[in-house]
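TL;DR need structure tokens for one chain.
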Amino acid sequence: MPAAARDLTDVVRDIGRRDLDRPTPCTDYTVRGLLNHLLYWGPSLLTAVRKEDPPPRAASEETAALVTGDWQRRLCDLVADLADALSDKKAWQGTTTMGGGELPGSMIGGMVLVEFVVHGWDLATALGSQRPWSPEAAVGAEDVLRGMAEQGRQMNVFGPAVAVPASAPALDRALALSGRDPAWQPLG
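>> reply
TL;DR here they are.
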């Protein structure tokens, strides 16, 4: 988790104002939309990891406008808080709540890892960055996605799996499981 958090925050710090309207491999989002998504759901993930009551939030992600002010600092702090909370073994044990339903703590931890790795890659790729990713984080995300990708597709969270060779790097296999084409390139 610490490596995945570090990878994501490195990308977030590289995002400039001119980058916010760029398309991302996560086809429903621009860079701004994806950052808004992370800022919207991150506090709910954090309270779920900490097994606390969920925080109040805007009625919907679509109506929230969270990429304002010092959004980079807020997002980097949120990522650090999530990684720190998930360093406690208790966060991975038992159950917690998020979105009204009870879920295993290990599922929430896995969701956070996938958010860090996959959306970190989405953002970096939108910027045209070919930065290296932590191999441990990529393997962890692939493991989580092997267990949850099909359910995610049924919930319209992930697109159809993309075919990649079995010999592809773990990051490419994780991305493919999430419905992303590891070869995606920004236009222009």
